Amino acid sequence: MISQNRNRAIFLDRDGVINVEVGYLSNPNDFKIIEGSIEALKILNKKGFLLIVVTNQAGIARGYYTEVDLKNIHNKMKSVLKQHEVTLTDIFYCPHHPEFTGSCNCRKPNPGMILESKKKYNIDLDNSYMVGDTLNDIQTGLAAN
């Protein structure tokens, strides 16, 4: 049973789920939506789910791009989705990589980003889902529950 004051969420990986995977996306002009993803996100919005992106961004730790570059990409993504009446609740990202910055709790498959969003948005994890394109994404969802 869903508590009346707890939210359901869909946690979404970004690359390969919302946008075409290009490997260390650093330029907003290279951001391309995966065909069908907008329609799926609209359905989930209409069903009352919060849409929360949880994405590893090791390119920051590796020096391939900056957090400002990432913010520009995320602004482009939010703008494109908003044009199609899709509302993202939030975007959580991990800028770390164990070889460059040491271990952390936020890098998937660790559940840190999901657990942080649970607190911020009062999310009922038993009625929420993780959507991704890798084993790490699946492991993240399992670790959070």
From TrEMBL:
Listed SUPFAM superfamilies: HAD-like (SSF56784)
Keywords: Carbohydrate metabolism, Cytoplasm, Hydrolase, Metal-binding
GO BP: carbohydrate metabolic process
Coiled coil: none
Cofactor names: Mg(2+)
One of the record's GO molecular function terms: metal ion binding
Protein localization: Cytoplasm
Keyword Cytoplasm: yes
Pfam families: PNK3P (PF08645)
One cellular-component annotation, GO: cytoplasm
Assembly with partners or alone: Monomer.
Protein family according to the UniProt entry: Belongs to the GmhB family.
Protein name in UniProt: D,D-heptose 1,7-bisphosphate phosphatase
Species, as recorded: marine sediment metagenome
